[in-house]
Amino acid sequence: MRRKRSHSWWDSLSKEWKRHLLDNCGYSEKSVTEENLSSVINQVLCITHLHLGGNYTNAYIDTLEPLRRLTYLEDLDCSFQEFSSFESLSQLQYLKTIEASDIHANDYKYLSGLNNLKIFSVACYRPASIAPLAQLPQLQQLTCELNTLLHEPGKGMEELALFTQLQKLSCGYNKVVTSLHFLREYTQLQQLSIRLSLIEKLSGIEVLNGTLEHLDAANSRLQTLEGIQELKTLKKLNLKQSPITSLEPLVHLPQLTHLDLDEVKPISFAFLKELSQLQEVTLTLMQDVELPDLGHLSSLKSLTIDTKEDIVLSWLGKLTQLEYLSLPEALVEKYFSVIREMKTLRKVRLGGVIPSGEIERRLKEALPLYMVF
């Protein structure tokens, strides 16, 4: 008897493809029989969310051709795979999200007709033009990292300037991104990541006043925060491991709720007195740099302090909403009598390490909400 057309399609698939598709539907290879094969295939053809991440499954694929039949597909993660082209996705009009980190393909022209695509993330070390993606009418979030952008002088940033409708952009890890002037026509951007970029100044970022809520400049080459004071809607700021020494412009951003200054070495933390809305703070305290009383941070839920100094933390008890605290072990010991009275604490770490032994026992006894993570 001649097998059904869908069965023939299934028979043509590689072992790796079958494994991915069956896993997605909750089947093992052994659970598929001649009796239930038609039902299984029907479920496969109706898949809406598919994860093909090769580094998690060790089932590597070199083509996306089988996806032509998955016409209901909405979300696709094809990261860490070895396919060389996006052509097979060109007709999948229900696609809303594509995650494609560490891949071989860079022919983005085949995605330009996906009118419902809202999120596209690529990191591939293979520079190519991303201009075709600017034609996507629904695109809201774009990640193009790991030297994805064209290397010709100015070309990569010229193409970034085309995506004026974006709400979220991650363009770090690109050696051609050296300034923020490509933002001049952006009108809706809420989140911007320039991690590990060569950007030294924030000139041009002021156009995002009124929209930008989250700026991630971790591991960047930022030398100054001049211009950031214009961002009256900014709530989250990550400056981890950046070379900035003056943070005084932050006094003009009292609305900040999240601030990461891990391994940043400012000459003063006095600006923290003005940031009364902070909910999460991470900082590194160097020798001869004073930490002010932070007891006024009544909304603070997470506090991380990395230091080798014997600092004054008697104000900890004023942080009545604190749920997470990370301190060097010596400071936990010194202020244990204060910490044990902080009844909202759920998690305490000693210099980034989960406490054990005697300190853990004492914390469990003292804090009713304390949990070991």
From TrEMBL:
Coiled-coil region: none
Gene3D superfamilies registered for this protein in UniProt: Ribonuclease Inhibitor (3.80.10.10)
Domain of life, source organism: Bacteria
Record key words, sorted: Leucine-rich repeat, Repeat
Classification via InterPro entries: Leu-rich_rpt, LRR_dom_sf, SDS22/Internalin_LRR
Signal peptide limits: none
Transmembrane segments: none
Keyword Cytoplasm in record: no
The UniProt record lists the keyword Repeat: yes
Protein name: Uncharacterized protein
Source organism per UniProt: Xanthocytophaga agilis
